[in-house]
């Protein structure tokens, strides 16, 4: 099972800390957090359950993310960063 969260400015602590306890206790093996609030990049943090049933941070990246767990997927975080920056620039011009 996989849960993916997109952080908003008001949910950072909840998504990165409190929800890790809830999802790990529920047996969710993979928990990914996408954080678009960094100035220079969209960052994804990957948590995986360890042998004790708690989450361990496996990876944090702003590069292209490619994995086979829990299924094959590629996420182009630089492309998401470019899209976010384009959206924000257009919003600021309006």
From TrEMBL:
Keyword annotations of the record: Endonuclease, Hydrolase, Nuclease
A Pfam family matched in the record: Uma2
Domain of life of the source: Bacteria
Gene3D superfamilies: tt1808, chain A
One GO MF term: endonuclease activity
CDD domains the UniProt entry points to: DUF820-like (cd06260)
SUPFAM superfamilies (alphabetical): Restriction endonuclease-like (SSF52980)
Domain Putative restriction endonuclease positions: 2-58
Protein name: Putative restriction endonuclease
């Amino acid at each position: 099972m996989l849960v993916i969260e997109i952080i908003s400015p008001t949910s950072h602590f909840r998504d990165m800390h409190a929800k890790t306890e809830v999802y790990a206790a529920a047996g969710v093996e993979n928990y990914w957090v996408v954080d678009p609030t960094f100035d220079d990049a969209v960052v994804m943090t990957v948590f995986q359950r360890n042998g004790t049933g708690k989450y361990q941070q496996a990876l944090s990246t702003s590069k292209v993310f490619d994995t086979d767990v829990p299924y094959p997927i590629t996420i182009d975080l630089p492309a998401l960063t470019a899209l976010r920056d384009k959206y924000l620039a257009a919003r600021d011009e309006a």
